[in-house]
Amino acid sequence: MSEPRAPHEIATVACIGAGVIGGGWAAYFLSRGLAVRAWDPGPGAGDRLRRTVDAAWPALTELGLAPGADPQAITLHPTAAEAVAGADFVQESAPEDLELKRSLLAELAAAAGPGVVVASSTSGFPMSDMAVAAADPSALVVGHPFNPPYLIPLVEVVGGRDSAPWAVDAAAAFYRHIGKSVIEMTRELPGFIANRLQEAIWREALHMVAAGEATPEEIDRSITDGPGLRWPVHGPCLTFHLAGGEGGMAHMLDHFGPSLKAPWTRLDAPELTPGLRDDMVAGAGRSAGGRPMAELVAERDRAVIAVRRAVAAARAAGDRA
Amino acid sequence: MSEPRAPHEIATVACIGAGVIGGGWAAYFLSRGLAVRAWDPGPGAGDRLRRTVDAAWPALTELGLAPGADPQAITLHPTAAEAVAGADFVQESAPEDLELKRSLLAELAAAAGPGVVVASSTSGFPMSDMAVAAADPSALVVGHPFNPPYLIPLVEVVGGRDSAPWAVDAAAAFYRHIGKSVIEMTRELPGFIANRLQEAIWREALHMVAAGEATPEEIDRSITDGPGLRWPVHGPCLTFHLAGGEGGMAHMLDHFGPSLKAPWTRLDAPELTPGLRDDMVAGAGRSAGGRPMAELVAERDRAVIAVRRAVAAARAAGDRA
């Protein structure tokens, strides 16, 4: 077994692929005071990467840079193997093409030093499917960010069948160390968690446009001026806990349960068994952390007001620019 | 044909049903300087309504009250017909039970004065299904809010088969007049727009909990720390326009199109026909309003930073309380 790098020992990260996601990762790593070694075979990749980092830097500065953070601490290399040489962590953000990921991850696993994790930004491929060409897949894990990786905290971490537990743990520890909100999944699931939820919305939206039921603009406004204002503060489960009023999730499920059978989306609902009902009620209770409903409502109200103002100010700043 | 009330002529609103939604509507109407006549047959409804209004008032004050807004300008009445007498607009927020809605809306339509709209807060029933018991269903429309109605701007307005065009237009005009973000739908669709999208997320979440794939807490955090941070500023379509980088929605669909076939959610995707692709690209272009990608990215970044800070401050204020 390799000795994994401890999070604070990681000083240099290789960014393999420097598009929207890879470039966003590079900007974030730089902002945390790390050095970045990049590779991207696309034409003009170096210029594009520079633009991505420069565009992100004001936001990262506003959020607070780590001591020593330097937007110039980035080098572009002619091969992936050269970019990986000497790196303490590898973040792969190549195009979402399974065959490409398979051969690239095999190459990265071979080039990475002992104890160096190779994390893939894949939006949904299980690592068990991507790792098949690697001679030693033990250091390969999924580290799935959200766009833009320099601002959205979530990273979903999950290993494949042949990933070593140390690699999964080291990836999660590193991401947490640099300020990410990590969900460490114990089983592989296509699309992980957040993309499954986001994809459900997206597919329903595409169906609605295809059927002439709504326009993309109506869909967008229905979210930005509607439930989207609640989701930064309370996720779907806690949101519906509050929708139940003083009776919380239990009342909500008992009251709106029948609408699960209604044709409100093209996705069929699961059977609302007593067991599922109880799991949702217990989960809402844990998410609420024992706080009384009035406190949750007050928190949501403060947050929604602040979010509305924040978005309005961000839009107005653009209008003035 | 009745002469509809012009928005500025509406001074008194009847709130039929005073639970979480009806009480939230009442608080909002009061904050806009309107008087409210309420009816709710439940035990303790008066006290509950008072608590709902009092809990919402600090938030409404913070957002800015209309001149003359008075949290005491609300009366509770022993019958629905009495609450509706003299009201210029009726908002029905009874439990989500089709038979109950049918008989109640028939009663409200009969009791309302000429030119007075009766709007239902139903979460998803089409008005054509709810209006069947009314002798004259012309004034019956859907005016679907989001919880809490006093903070979330979106209201979806749509008529049924027998709704009069004047009633649909008058409802939309009134809601806009009092500061709501109105989507006026031209065809009935179960769940309207936003609830179809929200329900798709919710059903996928329930499936995941039922299958042991994720916990409610993981689901909530995957949204609050992930895509939920983007949705108050850019809806699902504009979000994916930005995910395409400089190539926008067109690049995104061409690059991630294959993932529509991946098992990323239990909802089957539509066929991504050239027509649907072009509709999405054109819609993203209209949503972007001709603004270059760099400007959209800068707007999103400003907003996400501000939203993160707003939520953190709202949570910290609770911890201090």
UniProtKB/TrEMBL annotation, chains A, B:
It comes from the Bacteria. Signal peptide: none annotated. SUPFAM superfamilies: 6-phosphogluconate dehydrogenase C-terminal domain-like, NAD(P)-binding Rossmann-fold domains. Residues 191-262 form the 3-hydroxyacyl-CoA dehydrogenase C-terminal domain. It comes from Pseudonocardia spirodelae. Residues 12-185 form the 3-hydroxyacyl-CoA dehydrogenase NAD binding domain. Keywords: Oxidoreductase. Gene3D superfamilies: N-(1-d-carboxylethyl)-l-norvaline Dehydrogenase, domain 2 (1.10.1040.10), NAD(P)-binding Rossmann-like Domain (3.40.50.720). Pfam families: 3HCDH (PF00725), 3HCDH_N (PF02737). Pathway: Lipid metabolism; butanoate metabolism. This is 3-hydroxyacyl-CoA dehydrogenase NAD-binding domain-containing protein. Belongs to the 3-hydroxyacyl-CoA dehydrogenase family.
